[in-house]
Amino acid sequence: MRKSQSSTEFMIFIGIAIIILMSYFAVSNSYLNLIYRQKDVISGQDLAKQIKNEINLASRVENNYMRTFQLPEKIGDKDYEIEIINREVIIRIDDLDYVELLTINIDENPGLEQGDTVIIERNSEGQVIISKS
Fold this sequence. Notes:
Blueprint: H1 2-60, E1 65-70, E2 81-93, E3 96-106, E4 117-122, E5 128-132
């Protein structure tokens, strides 16, 4: 009788340990997914801010200013879309939009894509022009 009680208690202990271990893995997995999601959000926001800063800088400097920079191929192993419409820079990753406001109105969407080399210039008339090379 004593041996069967010990083996039953041992099996109950193992069962409880497995349940606790499975709960730990479930919680860890959800936190890990949250961290990866936050990484994408921060990367999208950073790219939108970088482009905003470049355009705003061009709007404040003297005429005949020109700056060239490279857009990344991917953001956190994900494809993205970029739009510059009027006074907004929009980065779209997995149906989420990251928007930054500009200090100057951009009349024409330059049609930028992943990995493009972007040229931002302020011409002699004071207009900021964005193009890709």
